[in-house]
């Protein structure tokens, strides 16, 4: 088990008479991820509406008046990873997929899998289906796309990334998801924080990774390769970035870059160790 201390500060200046915010910044509560303690504070203190959906996304809705607004969330989170031998994991035929997994076969806003089928079949169609084929997709994306901070924007899709070959974590994730779906492999996005990233890439930030459905479970892949996967706590889960933005803002609002901290907590006596690299397949769902 791994334990992480996570915090985020969001700072805004509402320029109109009011502004509205939909946030997904709180750590998800799933069978494999539990929140030991947490605290949410808004300055000025105002009411928030809360809703948790079927994917464990904890959504906050805020309506604020003109002026500065600060949102601070901090939590201690335990992750009880499932670690499997990837060689044993198989792709599930469409006829055998659970109905709630089927939406992750379809194209979505940022993952135009219907336009990637010829490419996906040419590159990966001849490989044996299973975890190793998915891992090969992950490696192809990691090796053929260059990580360049602020090189893309909210309009960049998987097709753009396969052409431009540069991007940030969400672009790596969208491309891998699109290729998987083009091969009839269900795939989706998970939002996290980039624990273990090289400090040369900048301050800690939100991080997008991929989950692929294999042998009846969702398994985690980081196609950008910047993080330590066992240190990836779950915040949001969805088809792509359009489903799980950390902040959707309505109104005339100026915003500052989020301030994020992520620290591991070790307690060997309680069986809690530091996040480490592993060759095993990882599931946190």
UniProtKB/TrEMBL annotation:
Give any Pfam family that matches. Answer: Bact_transglu_N_2
Q: Which residues form the Transglutaminase-like domain?
A: 161-225
Q: What is this protein called?
A: Transglutaminase-like protein
Query: Which species does this protein come from?
Result: Cupriavidus taiwanensis
């Amino acid at each position: 088990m791994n334990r992480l201390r996570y915090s985020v500060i969001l700072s805004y200046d509402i320029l109109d008479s009011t502004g509205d915010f939909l946030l997904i910044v709180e750590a998800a509560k799933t069978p494999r991820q539990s929140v030991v303690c947490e605290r949410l504070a808004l300055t000025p203190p105002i009411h928030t509406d809360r809703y948790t959906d079927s994917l464990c996304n904890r959504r906050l809705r805020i309506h604020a008046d003109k002026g500065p607004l600060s949102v601070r969330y901090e939590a201690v989170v335990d992750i009880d990873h499932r670690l499997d031998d990837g060689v044993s994991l198989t792709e599930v035929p469409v006829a055998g997929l659970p109905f709630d997994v089927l939406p992750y076969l379809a194209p979505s806003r940022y993952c135009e899998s219907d336009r990637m089928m010829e490419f996906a079949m040419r590159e990966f169609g001849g490989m044996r289906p299973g975890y190793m084929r998915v891992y090969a997709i992950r490696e192809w994306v990691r090796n053929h796309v260059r990580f360049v901070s602020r090189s893309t924007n909210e309009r960049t899709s998987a097709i753009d990334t396969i052409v431009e070959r540069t991007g940030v974590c969400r672009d790596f994730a969208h491309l891998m998801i699109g290729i998987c779906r083009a091969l009839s492999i269900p795939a989706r996005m998970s939002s996290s924080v980039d624990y273990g990233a090289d400090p040369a890439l900048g301050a800690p930030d939100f991080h997008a990774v991929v989950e692929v459905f294999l042998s009846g479970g969702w398994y985690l892949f980081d196609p950008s390769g910047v993080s330590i996967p066992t240190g990836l706590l779950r915040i949001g889960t969805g088809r792509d970035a359009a489903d799980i933005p950390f902040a959707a803002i309505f109104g005339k609002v100026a915003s500052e870059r989020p301030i994020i901290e992520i620290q591991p907590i070790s307690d060997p006596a309680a069986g809690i160790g530091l996040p480490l690299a592993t060759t095993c397949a990882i599931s946190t769902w």
